[in-house]
Amino acid sequence: MAASAQRERIYTVVAQIPPGRVTTYGRVARLADAPTPRMVGSAMRHLPEDSTLPWHRVIAASRRLADHGGAERQRERLLAEGISFTAAGKVPESRLWP
I want to staple 25 with a disulfide (CB 3.0 to 4.6 A). Which of 15, 31, 37, 53 is the partner? Predict the structure, then answer.
């Protein structure tokens, strides 16, 4: 499958994540039949700046935000949607989708 087709499948899954919920790179990979969670991360990095896709709702399997340049913006967007973080910096498991 071409990389652009895989990205579109990934984007289709990410578009379905409801506000106030998060999912992991691995879960998106499984739902989109993508080979690896890393491919999901790569697809998120290729989004244009003005994209309306809820990229901020995709987090690491540890339920922490991945260490990337947009992590602070991601945290702010999640907080605005009512997602809290534990003292250890994790999103509560009850917020995982699906």
Answer: 37
